[in-house]
Every structure is written in structure tokens, then in C-alpha cells.
# Entry
Amino acid sequence: MRRRTLLMVLVASACLGGCGFVYDQKIDEAYRLVAVDVLEQAMVCRSLTGGNCSGDGLPGPTVFAAGADDRYLVMARHPAGYPAGYGGIDRSVTEYFYVTRHRGDPPVGVGDVVGPLTRSEFEAEAQRLRLPPFSRRISRVE
# Structure
């Protein structure tokens, strides 16, 4: 009985410490499209050792589409509703971003992120720079 109780406590503790992401899709070797608790919190993050990731400097929720090549990272998101973070997401607005990548994928620096852009602005930049397509999508929040 003691072993069973101990086992239950260990399992419960592991889950309270974090059971992972509700969504986790690899975009490429360096970046992932993830959602921690709910899909409406989806964002792109840079992979770190141990399975963690960092979204520092990258556009926040709700990212519903992303893609990458060796030069750029692209994202499309619906911004948070008003007040920020409490009103859900505003699907009537879509913002587009691209990030210039550097050798070794260091953390995102000032000037690396361009956006938010409108669809027409993004399409013009995509054509001019030959930005990669969106290879990952979360259709439920799109």
C-alpha cells in the first residue's frame, strides 16, 4: 500500500510540475510552434536543450501559421482581444511577421523581427525576399 501511495504522489508531482505542451510541432531544427495550456496561447519559440524553448523577442499569441527556411522565419497570428489576453483572440485581424535568421540561430535581436504587416504588405515582402511558405498551421485557431 505504501508503494502504491508513493507512486501516486510521484505521478501527481510530475504532472503539477508540467506535463508538456498541448501543442508542439517542429518547424525546423531550431524553431517550434507550441501552445502551453490552450491553443489560443500558441506561439513560435526557439528550441533549447532539454525540450524547453524560448519565445524571447518573437511575436506572441496567437500564432496559427509558421514556416522557415535557412534565411527567414515567418508567422501569421491573430492578436489578443481587448483587454490584452483577457478577451480571447480577434480572428477578424491577421498580422504577419518575418524574422531574419543568423548563423547558429542566436536569440532574436533588435531589428530581426519585421511586423506586424498586413496581408498585402506581407505578400509583397514574400515576393521580394522569397520568404518561405507557412508549413505548420493550427486550423482550430486559424
Notes: Strands lie at 23-26, 31-35, 43-47, 53-54, 63-68, 72-77, 95-100, 113-117, 136-137.
